[in-house]
Write the structure tokens for this entry.
Amino acid sequence: MFLRMPLNSDQLAAYDRDGFLVLENLVDAQACDGLRARATELVREFDPQGLVSVFSTHDQTRTSDEYFLESGDKIRFFFEENALHPDGTLRQGKEQSINKIGHALHDLDSAFDEFSRTPEIEQLVSNLGIADPLLLQSMYIFKQPRIGGEVTCHHDATFLYTEPLRLAGLWFALEDATIDNGCLWAIPGGHKLGMKSRFVRAAGGGTRFEVIDNTPWPEEELQPLEVKQGTVIVLHGLLPHLSRENQSARSRQAYTLHVFDASAHYPASNWLQRSTEMPLRGFRNLPH
């Protein structure tokens, strides 16, 4: 399923310099297609009756309902903003309307568990210097044709902060990602700009942004990361990145996995939390 590819010194130097690393042909086509098929099954089994939760990065606090806030140890479904009529009903079938599935696929679904916990991914994470890894969050992102929404410039540490910061994101291209269908864009070296904000749980309920540095991102330095199916993009927790709207007729499906080192503190103020009944686990399927 995965090609064994330990990182060499040049790749590690590039990751330290740029804050991201593009690893081509890491996952074979059969594994990518298998994960896409499983995601299709999950959506088919999902009944949206009476429940429409929208994912948006334009006004995150507005969309932080309980369904979203309690998704850290569940499999939940979030719709595209442009998938809904003004009255909240879907413009088209649910299969063409889902933005993403999150956030514990890697622990609650056997297909995603198997995909996420291969020895090759464990080796990759170890090469990044994460010695005692915990798998924190997973998302299946559809980037639907014509309505796949923009994800504004951000770094993952805003949402998944650790002290000290020992966080990495793995972005698996399950289909070709191009400028036309909404590939990732990143600011090379932008991870050295430091923390901008934290997305935390508010004392009175809901969420809020805790602004640390309101200096605008240097978005003129963004570069597109067009990649083929089977590519893995490794993202430093502080790397500024975004994806634009998908205005093409092709989807841009991807799977993301976030991992941090258990030696770091994961604050209770972070929006994503788990119940005590479902502790975080590493690659060996044992509770931490």
